[in-house]
Write a structure and sequence with these properties.
Largest sheet: 5 strands, antiparallel
Strand content: 25-35%
Oligomer: single chain
Length: about 525
């Protein structure tokens, strides 16, 4: 590639007779000259062909691929501790020179020489050149830029003029946000090879695990962008994600120990893909699955679910309430019988199912990725992600500690109880049941039990309201031993009839985050006669 600057316009001649014109404010323009119009002293990029007198061989399967764009220098570790570091910590300094590196892959069984490439920043070409790509290997192509905290769109294209005939043209470019959080994916060799064997046949523009991973990252970023909530999150989730690298391991060597989680502190989120299915419930792909498992389906959002624990999010399906499970039991009774499964608290079926859905009595209504609906984010998750937007720190290394934000509630909380028609239940007796330690002899590993005795009892005012206090859950998030579901069961008795309802802690968090000193909640219950 020979470059020249004339009157602020970059004129770039590629070795295959293509003129690339770029003005400081324009996009890449490509002019194809008549063959032989200019000699640049080089040859066109080619795949190997049969020599003179040789028998024709099966044509080479040619594919060039952009695996990822990494911030190669400087590599900076994320900040240790909770997600409350300064926005600048863990990032380069404003104006500091940063080296980006595109990972270009040649899947062909022979070298490719003089392959053109282009770097673009916010749609404008900032660098062009050629690179030699060894057979069945990868090559890094660097670019140096000054760092800015202002988000920019950085793109790398291999063979930008499509002069090379490839079996897959849809994987020749990767576009990233420069301030994106970094994601590292580790994968064992057998599954990595399986992706390359399968992906192209699916016809979705992919030919490798890297392509599949980039597809997922685009979907994850789309989920973030579209998670818009008027007034509270009009721009959706503010962060973006970037695949920083893929690393392969011999089969059977990729683990999920504490050492695995802390092995690379220069990336913000990590996920591992063993070749064979393990006892780990978080493993969702293996090489024995049928080909459709490699299609970018909704199930692959589960990987983002797991990685968002590293951003401090908790499983919101823990707010669901079940009966008759080893880790959940409702001991509340009416008329001498348990209320769970009765007319007072019937089992429900939902579109999202869930763990033990046959014994479900309450499912958290704002379903999202951290619960059972993989296609959206709940408001609770959106606001937490935006609270920590741009901060390169991690809370979770291994395990699921209770997060401090669970205890963020208004100074006072007012509950209004009504019947199903919305009529306030003046003078009603209101009992509040917290989940607590299991009864003697029951498994101690969780606190998913509600006793038959209410923890709090109130009498509703004429408008049907009761004051619950600051923390009716009696939550102590700093206590790592508390693992119970943070949902209150509320019993309302009015004029000889009884109804039940549920209050998740997230409702109280959201009232606090709306800036309310007094949280306001309404609970409509269906009343049934009691003996």
């Amino acid at each position: 590639m020979v470059n020249a600057m004339r009157h602020g316009i970059i004129a770039s001649w590629s070795l295959d007779g293509v003129l690339l014109l770029q003005s400081p404010k324009s996009r890449l323009l490509t002019l194809l000259l008549t063959a032989g119009a200019l000699s640049c002293g080089g040859e066109q990029p080619t795949a190997p062909t049969d020599g003179p007198g040789q028998e024709p061989e099966t044509p080479q399967v040619v594919d060039l691929d952009v695996g990822w764009i990494t911030r190669a220098e400087p590599r900076i570790a994320f900040a240790k501790g909770y997600l409350d570091s300064s926005p600048e910590e863990g990032w380069p300094a404003e104006g500091q020179n940063v080296t980006w590196a595109a990972h270009a892959i040649n899947w062909t069984d022979a070298p490719m020489t003089g392959v053109a490439y282009a770097w673009l920043l916010d749609g404008d070409v900032v660098d062009t050149g050629t690179v030699d790509l060894p057979a069945s290997s990868s090559t890094e192509v660097p670019l140096e830029l000054p760092w800015t905290f202002t988000r920019q769109e950085l793109a790398f294209r291999i063979d930008p003029s499509n002069r090379i005939d490839e079996i897959e043209e849809g994987n020749n470019e990767v576009v990233v946000a420069t301030d994106a959080l970094s994601v590292a994916l580790w994968i064992e060799d057998g599954l990595y090879k399986r992706f390359h064997d399968v992906e192209h046949s699916l016809g979705v523009g992919t030919n490798s695990f890297e392509d599949w991973a980039q597809y997922q990252v685009r979907r994850w970023n789309g989920l973030f962008k579209n998670a818009r909530v008027p007034e509270m999150a009009p721009d959706g989730v503010l962060d973006r994600l970037r695949l920083d690298y893929v690393r392969t391991f011999p089969d059977g060597t990729l683990g999920r120990s504490e050492a695995w989680w802390t092995a690379d502190s220069t990336v913000d989120m990590r996920y591992g893909f063993p070749t064979k299915r393990t006892t780990d419930a978080r493993q969702f792909l293996d090489a024995d699955l049928p080909d459709y498992a490699f299609f970018p389906s909704a199930a692959t959002m589960l990987h983002l679910h797991e990685m968002l624990h590293m951003r401090g999010l908790s499983d919101l399906y823990r707010l669901d309430v079940y009966q008759r499970r080893p880790w959940s039991n409702i001991l509340i009774e009416e008329n001498g019988s348990t209320v769970a499964g009765s007319e007072f608290m019937p089992f429900i079926q939902t579109a999202f199912g869930g763990l033990g859905s046959d014994s479900l009595v309450y499912q958290y209504p704002d379903q999202g990725l951290m619960a059972h609906n993989l296609g959206r984010l709940s408001l609770h998750s959106i606001l937490l992600l935006n609270r920590w937007a741009g901060r390169r720190t991690q809370q979770r290394q291994a395990g699921y500690p209770i997060q401090p934000y669970w205890g963020e509630m208004p100074s006072e909380n007012r509950l209004r109880v009504t019947d199903k028609e919305g009529t306030p239940l003046a003078g009603a007796s209101v009992g509040v049941y917290r989940s607590g330690p299991p009864p003697h002899g029951q498994p101690p590993e969780s606190n998913y039990y509600w006793s038959n005795t209410p923890d709090l009892v109130f009498t509703a005012a004429d408008d049907g309201t009761v004051l619950l206090g600051h923390n009716p859950f009696n939550l102590h998030p700093e206590d790592p031993g508390f693992q119970g579901p943070m949902t209150l069961i509320v019993r309302v008795e009015h004029e000889g009839r009884v109804g039940y309802g549920f209050l998740p802690v997230t409702d109280f968090n959201l009232e606090k985050w709306r800036g309310h000193d007094v949280g306001e909640y309404t609970l409509a219950v269906e009343l049934h006669p009691v003996e």
